[in-house]
Amino acid sequence: MKLWIARDADDTLVLYKTKPWKRTHIDYNNEFDCDDDFLTIDGKLFPEVTFENSPQQVEVKLVKEDILEKLRKIEEQQNILRDAIENGESLSEVAKKHNINLVKLGE
User: Fold this and answer.
1) Long-range CB pairs of 25-32, under 8 A, 24+ apart, other chains included
2) Whether residue 104 has pLDDT greater than 80
3) Closest residue by Cα to residue 32 from 47, 48, 13
4) For 26-85, how does the pLDDT look when each residue is reduced to its tens digit (9 = 90+)?
5) N or C: which end of the chain has fewer CB within 10 A?
6) DSSP letter assigned to residue 45
7) Cβ of 75: how many Cβ atoms within 10 Å?
8) Domain residues of the chain, as ranges?
9) Element of type H or E holding 4
10) Residue 2 φ then ψ, to 5°
C-alpha cells in the first residue's frame, strides 16, 4: 500500500492517503494538508523525514501477513514430521526431502 508521509515544522509526523501539500495560509504555513484521510503517528519514527524534505511517498507492508504465512509453514512442517514419526520414517531423511531444518536442542 503506497501512502505519503510528511513532518510539519513542529515535528508532527503524519501519514496521508494522498499526496499532501504545504499550507500557504499565514496561520498554517508550517503544516501540510490534504483532502483525504490522514493519521498522526509518533514523531520519533522516521527521523530521516524532515519538514524540508517532506512529503515523501512510502510503501506500507503489513507484517501480520508475513507472520501468519510463517506460522502456516511451521505448522505444515510439524505435520510432515509428525507423519514421519507415526510411519517410522527417518526424521533426517524426511527433513532433507522437504527442506526442513532440524536443530538439536540441549547441546
Assistant:
1) 32/6, 32/8
2) no
3) 13
4) 666 678 888 888 899 999 999 999 999 999 999 987 777 778 888 888 899 999 999 999
5) C
6) S
7) 10
8) 2-59, 63-97
9) strand 2-7
10) -95, 130
